[in-house]
Amino acid sequence: RLFTPRTLPQSRERRSFIASLLSRIGLSGPTGGSDENATHAECRPFVAFNTALVMRWGPLQGMWTQSGERRDVWRLFLQHDDADDVAWRDVEQAVGSCDDAGGLVDTFGPKDVQIPSSVANHFVPFAGIALCLTRPLTSAEPRISCFLPLPLQSSLPFLVNANFVLCDPTSPSRLDLASSTREGSLASGAEWNRRLLQKLVQPMIRACIEEQAFALQVRNNGRAKQNLCAQWIAQSGGVDAILPLTAQLPRSLQELLDLRPFYEAISHLELFQPFFVSGSTLGAATSLGALAASAIRQSDASSLLSYAGSVQPLGQEDLSDEQRSSVHAFFRDLGRYELCHIDSSVADEFVSAGVRRRDVLSRTLVIQHLKNKRPRDACMAAHLLGYLLAGCVGESPETPFLIGLPIVPMCDASIVELGIGQNRSLRCTFPQANQCSEVAIRGQAVLRRLCPQNTVDISHLTSKEITIMKGIAHSLGIIDVDRCEHLSLALRETCPAIVGATLRVSAQPAPLLPQGLGHIANSFAGAASAFVHGMLDRNGDVDDDIVSSSSVGLGSGAEADTLLRDIWGFAEKGQHGMAEDFIEHFDGFYIIPACPSEYWLRRLPRVAAGDAGVAASSQGEASSSLMHAQTRRLLAMRRTDPIFLPPQDDDPLTIQVLVIAGQLIPSRFMDENHPAIPNSTKHFLLQHGILEHFSSSAMIQALTRTLRQRANHGATLAARCASLTVQQKDLLHRVVSEVACEASSRGFVDAQSHHEDNGARALLFCSLPIFRSEAGFQLQSQAINASSQRTLADGHCSLGQGRQVHQSLAELIVVDGEPMHLPGELLDLSGRFVFRESPHILSSFAQALLLPEIQQHLISHGRWLTQVEWLLRHVVPHIGELGSEAQVIVLDRLLPLLEVEQANSHPGFVPVEVIGGGTLLKPPCLLLDAHDFQIQEVFGIGEACAPALPKHSRLHFPVHTLSPPVRVQLRRLGMRRSINDAFCLAFLVQELRSRSKDVPGERYGDLQRGLMQRIVESWPQISAEAQEALLSEAFVDISSAADGGEEPDSLFSLQPFRDHGSRRLLCLGELVFRSDPLDPFLCWTSLPLCPRGFPAFPGYKRPNLDDVLAHARKLGEMADGSAVPCNLWSELKERVVAPLCAFLANSEPCRSALAQDSNRDSVSASDHGPIRGMSTSRLCSQLRKVKFIVVPMDAASGIGPHAFVAPWRISLVLKDHRPPMFALPEYLQEHVPLLRLLGVRDALELPSGDASLQGDGDATKAMQDSMRWLFENGAESFADVTVRCDGGNIFLHRSILMARSEYFRAMFQGGVGGFREGQAGGADIHLLETQVDVARVLFGYLYCGQVEEAPLEGPDAASNSADLLRLADELGVPHLFDFAQLWIANQADLEDCADALVLATRHGAQILERAMLSLLAANADAPEVEQQLSRLSDTHRQALQDAVLAMRRQT
Questions:
Q1: CA-CA 20 to 30 A from 1118: which of 381, 426, 700, 1218?
Q2: How far apart are CA 449 and CA 443, in angstroms?
Q3: What is the Cα–Cα distance from 43 to 24, expressed in whole angstroms?
Q4: Spatial separation of the C-alpha atoms in residues 808 and 778, rounded to whole Å
């Protein structure tokens, strides 16, 4: 009470008292200040603590007094918070503020809500809880206190004391907590109480619960003698006994305290003890509380669980103890779920808080985890299955939830999954109401013995569970085995060895008959012995169609007999009895007992007295062999493969066949006296073809069926046939061949499956080693003498290669023809082959080989060859090893049989001549005919001496030893000739090319002309692909040595391609036909012309635009250095320049530009070359300055000297040449549109001289000569004017200058008051910025009236012309000024227009300006124009645009 005052003023008084008390005793003192803040600061550590005070009243060991009275031990949790904290200040102000009426105003609720002034003091936030550790609280003990107990009914497991706001503290009858449901004046008090509960009480309750949970764990482990654990909690089952419940709270506290956040907060805390699952079965009377207490005692401290992370164990449901214990044990084995029992009322609180447990232990959860976890053992699986089925009692079973669950116990103590989708079928024999119980007993006995892993063990299930399981067995995938079909399926799946089992066949043949038995055909005892030895090999192993009972799982001896009786008894007494159903479903099962050998010995007739001892010896030997058989031997029951019963007669031939059958099929005989198969069943099997009496035809039929059903049995039969004697093999050979030839053979024809029987007949026929090769037949014909007969009797006669006399057709090769004999016998042509037309073979055998099924079988296995195939595969590969005579014999036999395609698809069979010797075989299509004239010419040979070629050569000459008939056949089969044969022509071209360095040039020219003539003749018959290949072969020599060179004084002699081209051989596709009237004249300098003497040929190259342009540039080079004879100028104009212009006009892009001036750059592809989409401007820029146009110097007559001129130097206006411009020649008048594109323009006409000085007659000439003399000799003719220029001085006369120029007239007439130059004496005129040559042009014009054009040409023509324009403008010579404008305009090219326009603007040269703008407009799309646009002024750019538009409007 010292530390816990109820109101804040009391608390502060206590603080002052404590502070002064501490100061008096010297523990602390004032800090030097006397204000309230200083005092408050000193008291702050006591007042403002925020912690929980935990107290324990009395030690645990002193819980009992000396007088024996019990004393309770309590666990207290106290919390005293700081009232000045911001979390409490707003609530205190609301509670402590008073209005004028003396009431407290609630700042949290409506303004008219007040509380009495009796509680108008600030409260201190204080609370505490007390838990009794020694006993649970009684119902009479109070639970809620506000320093004093309140009369509130509550069943909380602990006491709660807090500084609550009460409804009316002054009235004992109304002592209750202020809550929201009370009168509105206490709404703020309810908020205070709610905060006390949330901030102080709930954390202490949580701390108390956590402490008790851990203390309880420590106590149970015995790790501490004293702890804080409440003993009664351990007896009640855990900490859920002290968890507050909503039902335990009074109504006011339920409104103030919301337990949902509290339970949500502790849902993940590890507070609860795990549920202990023992390995033993729990008692029926055991309660969940006792189980929980047991779990507490047996758990450790580290295994506490949370509500959200645990699972509730099963409750008191209608379950057996074994089922409940097995379910809990199953979840314990999972290791993923922790079982924890929590009281239902506590669980409801968690649920109301929205907290979910990890899962709910139910049948659904069991089903879910059974899909991934198997039960521990079959016993657990049975109990789990009962638990799941118990939920289906009285309802429709929920079978979909059980599918795939591993809870079915099997007879082999294994566990399998439920449902149809498991990896094995589940079976069980349930008793049927309409069936004899013996059937179920026999069926279950068979299943339990043969397939325990698939048989459900229902011995652990109750009758009710068995009934439920039987009702849903089908939906769960459990088959009720009540018919033969079900039993056979069960045996097929679980005991596959009982169906069609095949054991190892001994690699060693069966032993031969004992010596002394005589001929096998007359000895019945020998027949029995042979049969016995056929049944067993020397190791005692059974045949592949007969197995031991132990090998198929039936056991041995009596056990096997019992199982056989159960199987046949189930079939006979089953639901349908012995019927077709049994035969259908047990087909192929090893359930028929095989006949023992001693039984056959007893059934065979007794032999003569002389053979009785032998028979007895054989019987004893057979019995001794069977003594080693420890198990019952079984045969497979097959409808398609009957089992034999003993023969009904003793015919000797039948006995011989029986002996052979004993060797070939010893596994087809049944024990007819076995007790498992009664006579009625035997008769039934005979009727349905399961059994059959033995006969010769039946044996062959059985062999055929066996091979049809099992193709690998042919090897087994072959191994058994190897043990037969030679006589037996020959006999079997004859019999099989004769039977095969019969049209309706009983041994081979089956009306139901004719096609399969034919295949089996062929397989049987070809698998038996009973046939002789050609060498074997020859050996048989030689075996007349006794020694040969003894050799045959031994059964193994060598054929020179270690081969036996008899072989199977699978080892031999059948040739549909007659044998061939070669001199020397270097090849074995008889040891491995059977010739159908050989005189040695039997006619029945020859006819049998022609049967379609046998022939097809041999063909499919590569054992049937025609005569051609035999020669190609087995003789031709060795033809190189044969002599020339043998080679001719082979080819003489082979070639007439071959077709062209067949002969040439073979790698090679004709020997050829090879350099260095050796053998090389080639097909006819890779041979050269030495009789072909062109081939002889290329190789330089005659008919009788074909040369040897290298091995890597594609074509060769056949050997010279071949006969003429063979060569005739080779020509028929495609031997190569030069006419109409592209491959041969290409080879000859390559051969000629390889000899180019060794053959003289003139001879090479003759050879290439001859070969070219053959190519031209064969061209129409050659494919397009071959034509392309020939055109790409380089073999043409265009040098002068090959064709004599060009004719002198011809156009082609002017810089021909052959003179400056590379010295290499050319392809036909690179040549231009020199005799063409047009093509060679367009390109003889840029492309190679074909050699002289070459014929016309459609594969020659046609010049394209690039070639013609290159040719034009070559012509321009002739203008600079080469001299053209006078007699060729006319031909140059007519056959070169004019056609060249016509070609350009018809080629793109000129053709499109001439046709559509509005869009000159959008052109189509050219037909003459690779230039596609070339713009007109590009083409014009390439040819504008190329000197390829021939212009006569005498424009009027057109004869005499000529010159090569570039298009841009030709004028369409000039009639006479006025250098630098030339008049357009007459022969190019029709090409004016093209020439305009190439740069020919309408040049301005230059004035020829001053009109005032022009005249006729001698007087004019005399005057001009006089003036020229004065000009040239001014220094000696009293000159009085000196013009000083750059590079020299000019001496002139004042009088002449004044007469010719107003500028000089004004200069020299000045007198005393005029210019300095007008004074008496000599005058100096300074033109130092002007070249002297330019000044002489101007002053020479003033003297003579004519312009000297020499300085205006040459390398300095552009600068001199510009200087002349400037000087004429400055000195006022208008006629010369106009002349200079025209001269610059005619001389300028496109790239000079911008500079010329600048010059024209500077001097006002309008003629020059108009000329330049016209030139730019005419070539507006040229790249030179585009490059200069940025250099033009705005005025000139606008003028150019107007000129272009005007020009296009005109066009």
A1: 1218
A2: 10
A3: 14
A4: 17
| Whether the bond into 203 is cis, omega within 30 of 0 | no
Strands 1066-1067 and 1189-1192: unpaired
* Element containing residue 317 per DSSP (H, E): none
**Rama region for 506: left / alpha / beta (φ>0; ψ in -120 to 50; rest):** beta
Output 1049 or 121, whichever has higher pLDDT: 1049
Task: Give the C-alpha separation, 554 to 87, whole Å.
Answer: 89
Q: Which residues contact 1338 (CB under 8 A, 6 or more apart)?
A: 1364, 1367, 1368, 1371, 1373, 1376
pLDDT of residue 1074 exceeding 60: yes
Reduce the DSSP state of residue 1242 to 3 states and report it. coil
Strands of 1033-1091 (E only): list them: 1034-1036, 1066-1067
- The upper half-sphere exposure of residue 619, i.e. CA atoms within 13 Å in the direction of its Cβ, equals 18
Question: How many CB atoms within 10 Å of residue 1123?
Answer: 7
* CA pair distance 156, 812, nearest whole angstrom: 106
pLDDT classification of 1096: cutoffs 50, 70, 90: very high
Q: Is residue 1220 reached through a cis peptide bond, with omega within 30 degrees of 0 on the bond before it?
A: yes
In the three-class reduction of DSSP (H, G, I as helix; E, B as strand; rest coil), residue 950 is classed as: coil
Output the CA–CA distances (angstroms, integers) from residue 703 to 691, 713, 752, 770, 847, in the order listed: 15, 9, 17, 15, 21
| CB-based contact 1263:1391 (threshold 8 Å) | no
Cα–Cα dist 1354/1350, whole Å: 8
Judge residue 1096's burial from the number of C-beta atoms within 10 Å of its C-beta, 0-12 exposed, 13-18 middle, 19 or more buried: exposed
Q: Quick one: DSSP state of residue 106?
A: -
Say what the pTM is. Answer: 0.48
Q: What is the mean pLDDT of the chain?
A: 75
CB proximity list for 59: less than 8 A, separation 6 or greater = 226
In the sheet that 126-132 helps form, which strands lie side by side, from edge to edge?
A: 52-56, 74-80, 126-132, 159-162, 144-145
CA distances from 847 to 740, 843, 1318, 1433 (A): 9, 6, 144, 110
d(CA 1073, CA 1095): 8
- pLDDT of residue 960 exceeding 80, the answer is yes
Neighbours of 472 (CB within 10 A): 17
State how far the alpha carbon of 523 is from the alpha carbons of 607, 722, 751, 793, 1350, in Å. Answer: 7, 21, 37, 18, 141
Q: What's the pLDDT score for residue 419? A: 66
Distance CA 747, CA 732 (A): 14
How does pLDDT run across 547-581, given as a tens digit for each residue?
Answer: 888 888 888 778 888 888 888 888 777 666 677 88
C-alpha 1004/C-alpha 1035 separation (Å) is 10
How far apart CA 188 and CA 182 sit, in angstroms, is: 11
Nearest CA to 730 out of 777, 764, 685 is that of 777
Task: Give the per-residue pLDDT at 865.
Answer: 92
CB-CB contact of 1252 with 1344 (8 Å)? no
Whether the predicted pLDDT of 335 surpasses 70: yes
HEC-encoded secondary structure of 483-550:
CHHHHHHHHHHHCHHHECCCCCCCCCCCCCCCCCCCCHHHCHHHHHHHHHHHHCCCCCCCCCCEEECC
1072 beta partners: 1089
Query: Could you report the per-residue pLDDT of 1110-1123, keeping only the tens digit for each?
Result: 888 888 887 665 67
The CA distance from 1400 to 463, in Å, is: 129
Torsion of CA 611, 613, 616, 620, to 10 degrees: -130
> How far, in Å, CA of 1218 to CA of 1237, rounded?
22
Q: What is the 3 state secondary structure string of 350-387?
A: HHHCCCCCCEECCHHHHHHHHCCCCCCCHHHHHHHHHH
